[in-house]
Amino acid sequence: MSEILTRGEQLDLFADIGRWPRRPYCSDDLASGLRIRSLASALTKAYIQANPPHLRVWALFDIDRPGAACAWEDAYLPPPTWTSINRTNGHAHSVWGLRVPVLTDGLGARDAPLRYLCSIESLMAERLEADPGFGGLITKNPAHPLWMTLKGPRLAYDLIELAEYLPGLEKHRPKRRAPEQIGLGRNVALFDRVRHWAYRAIRPYWGTGLQGWNAWLSQCNSRALTYNADFLTPLGGREVWHIARSVAKWTWKHTTAEGFSSWQARAGQKAGIASGKVRRQASEDKRVTARLMAAAGRSVREIAAELGVGKSTVDRWVRD
């Protein structure tokens, strides 16, 4: 199902440059750190950033064991788009392209496809026995001669196609109150926590200009780093920064004193309507109870005392 690629065929994976970052992080040695370079320059490095900022174009999995290239068969999954294999120990990165990229953070991200992708990646990682702490930012460059690269028959899959190979997927869907602690689920959980905190926390920064914006951005990043520490395997600092900055920018632009007051008024109106419904239902329950008690021979005084209402009210209920 897979074939070993020549150098030219390896570069073919980069033919659709829209699926790659224009200036990705890259490195020949992860221990020495990452650098931002043009895509052409990054292609000469052993490690490269695969997904553009804020997008999931490729689902990446780090499989740290000999024979990792065959893990997809053992897991009963469709063939990956490519697998880059360490020639020394057989460990590999297996990658599935997504036909429709998924926005992974920012207030424009759609919740349903993001959580759907989270569940798919979580179950695939479990089935592949992949590293649960792998963030998917940097991968073995499939065009680099250091790795042996195998190419599958498909460039990309729809999420629903991948889901067909994954029975029991619903159990892996991240919940708002019990988010996944691995993979993309951490991004979802962190984004949710920071944005819900930010809606109210921004109020002291309204109308404070550039100085206030810098302080607000710093506050969002500090809060995101604090929440990130709660994960069993925290996200990298750059991912945390992107999430914090996204939330900070949206709330700074769209959350104002006037807008917050309007929201409070709408929320109060909704609460008042709901409270009114509750009170009316309670009154109706008492009215029915009063009529049943009267039918059983209880006096108006007794009914009023037991239900905690006036005698004239009971008298009216009974007459009605």
Describe the protein's architecture and organization.
- This is Helix-turn-helix domain-containing protein.
- The protein is α+β, with helices and mostly antiparallel strands and 320 residues long.
- It has 3 domains: 3-172, no CATH class; 184-255, Orthogonal Bundle (Endonuclease III, domain 1); 270-319, Orthogonal Bundle (Arc Repressor Mutant, subunit A).
- It is 47% helix and 14% strand.
- A 5-stranded antiparallel beta sheet has the order 1-9-6-7-5, covered by helices on one side. A 4-stranded antiparallel beta sheet has the order 3-2-4-8, with no helix packed on it.
- Strand 6 and strand 7 form a beta hairpin.
- The longest helix is centred in the C-terminal third of the chain and has 39 residues, at 257-295.
- Mean pLDDT is 80; it is low at 176-180.
Total DSSP helices: 11
Principal-axes geometry comes out as: elongated
Radius of gyration: 29 Å
Distance between the termini: 80 Å
Low-confidence stretches: 176-180
Helix and strand content put the structural class at: alpha+beta
Mean pLDDT: 80
InterPro entries: Homeodomain-like_sf, Plasmid_replicase_bac
Protein name: Helix-turn-helix domain-containing protein
Pfam family, one: HTH_23
